[in-house]
Specification:
7-stranded mixed β-sheet; D-Maltodextrin-Binding Protein, domain 2; 3 domains; alpha/beta; Arc Repressor Mutant, subunit A; two-stranded antiparallel ribbon
């Protein structure tokens, strides 16, 4: 059954029987046969089949998660019982706003448990990290949840939410956030980021006629520009930039509050070090160090 479970993970990762077969050296028919044998052994249907396509159903997703756990245990059979004495390397993708806060706290605790592990933190936008994770270049990513479906081969672990707020220069009076948006120069949080796309959707829903003149994928830079009176912006209130938020006026987005969800995206197949790091990230969600 181990072979079938590995093939199941490949199908979930690459989307179709044909794509999975091409990656693991099997024909589409062979992959289909393995999945049928797995269903027969388990006594349950894992895929919804329509014509030539097959999509994991809810039961299939449950089995996929458990398959990841089983395969991780098998892969770790030869590993030392005392992980703290072992060496290894983890490649972690992380957006910039979590690196000096949540991730820093998690890594500090992780290093105590696994002092001989080397950690490489790979920066990038959430979209870039998603692509690298899906390509197998990262073990996990701490990022913003996208507004579209995630690959079936990856598991999302929510950690925290950051609310979006209107930020304006300190001396600027604000009667209502929508009125201020329509009257003041607008500094746009880049639409290349998932958070920036949320702002774009909000503006479209509100029919806001903003006077946009700059677009940047850098929250600290935008906050600095707002503090210098160069315009207004809608930004997620991230812990990492608390000092910069203190330099501007923060106004809640009444009636249309939006948040960006920060979480971990990783494969369900994971060893003890990755499991430990994810646990430390859960513990590090609060600012208490």
């Amino acid at each position: 059954m181990i072979t079938e479970l590995r093939t199941l993970v490949a199908v979930a990762r690459y989307g179709t029987f044909a794509a999975a077969g091409a990656r693991i050296g099997l024909t589409q028919a062979a992959v289909s046969g393995q999945m049928k044998r797995l269903e027969d052994k388990l006594g349950m249907q894992l895929f919804d089949r329509t014509g030539r396509s097959a999509t994991l159903n809810p039961v299939g997703h449950t089995v996929l998660a458990r398959a990841g756990e089983v395969l991780a245990l098998i892969e770790n059979l030869a590993e030392p019982a005392d992980w703290s004495s072992s060496t290894g390397r983890l490649r972690i993708g992380a957006i910039s706003s979590v690196q000096p806060t949540l991730l820093k706290r998690a890594l500090k605790a992780f290093h105590t448990a696994f002092p001989r592990f080397h950690i490489q933190v790979v920066p990038g936008t959430s979209l870039e990290l998603l692509d690298r994770l899906d390509a197998g270049e990262l073990e996990l990513a701490v990022m913003v949840r996208p507004g579209f479906g995630l690959p079936q081969s990856l598991v999302w672990e929510p950690l925290l939410e950051e609310r979006f707020v209107l930020v304006t220069p300190p001396a600027m009076p604000v009667s209502h956030w929508q009125k201020t948006l329509n009257e003041q120069p607008f500094l746009r949080y880049s639409r290349h980021s998932f958070g920036g796309r949320q702002v774009e959707r909000l503006l479209e829903q509100q029919g806001a006629g903003v006077i946009e003149w700059v677009e940047i994928d850098d929250i600290p830079a935008l906050l600095s520009m707002v503090a210098d009176g160069m315009g207004v912006a809608i930004l997620p209130q991230a812990e990492a930039y608390a000092d910069l938020f203190d330099r501007v006026t923060v106004t809640e987005l009444e009636d249309v509050g939006i948040v960006r969800e920060i979480g971990i995206l990783a494969s369900p197949v994971r060893g003890e070090p990755i499991t430990q790091l994810i646990n430390e990230c859960r513990k590090a969600r609060t600012s208490a160090a």
